Amino acid sequence: MQTKSFDEISVQDLADAAAVNRATFYDHYTDKFALLDALVAGGFHVLLHERKVSYDGTCATAARPIILAACDYLAMHHRGCTDNATKSAFEPLIEAAITNAIQRVLLSGISKTAGAGKPSAEMVATTASWAIYGAIKEWLKTPDRPSAEEIVPVILPLILPILQAAPVKSCEATAHALAPGET
User: Fold this and answer.
1) Which of 11, 20, 93, 182 is the most exposed place for a label (fewest CB within 10 A)?
2) Which CATH number goes with the domain that contains 46?
């Protein structure tokens, strides 16, 4: 991508750069978009792992570190991409990769047993991941935006009702994490 735009890069180019044949590439990825998705999601998961972030479902407010990590990751990507044409070409790919990554993290802690009249775990995780991404995207467009640490307490109350729609374990032990004025 230092010498060609993403659209100009072929699977053969990628295979040549990785010193593998095309069949080996296709053993791992369906196309170059799947590779990009894996790179973006992988980078986000590395950040989550470094910060020891997970979502255990014990309390919806446990989403706070996930939101903060997504803010930091997307802000880093936003700063690193100064070319507007490249930024808009990659935006849908980044969007899909990040929302899928957030969804997977949330799904790991949401009870898979939906009760009568309750949405499925997949529906809750998908809705929450898109809401998180959308809020962060709006935050990134804000001139003189506050820091990620300052915006997370603004975003979290928007996300909590979504996460609380899923069956979760008791929140009492961690409910103090969102006391007014705390960050």
Assistant:
1) 182
2) 1.10.357
**DSSP labels, 5-61:** -GGG--HHHHHHHHT--HHHHHHH-SSHHHHHHHHHHHHHHHHHHHTT----SS-GG
Q: For 26-85, how does the pLDDT look when each residue is reduced to its tens digit (9 = 90+)?
A: 999 999 888 888 888 888 889 888 988 888 877 767 899 999 999 999 998 776 555 555
Contact 124, 166 (CB under 8 A): yes
In angstroms, rounded to a whole number, what is the distance separating the alpha carbons of residues 151 and 50?
A: 21
pTM: 0.76
68 belongs to a structural domain: yes
**Structure confidence by residue, pLDDT tens digits, 76-128:** 877 655 555 555 667 788 888 889 989 999 998 887 666 667 788 899 999 99
Parent domain of 117: 31-178
- Whether 163 is covered by a domain: the verdict is yes
Sign of the dihedral through C-alpha 67, 68, 69, 75: positive
Using DSSP's 3-state secondary structure scheme, residue 180 falls into: coil
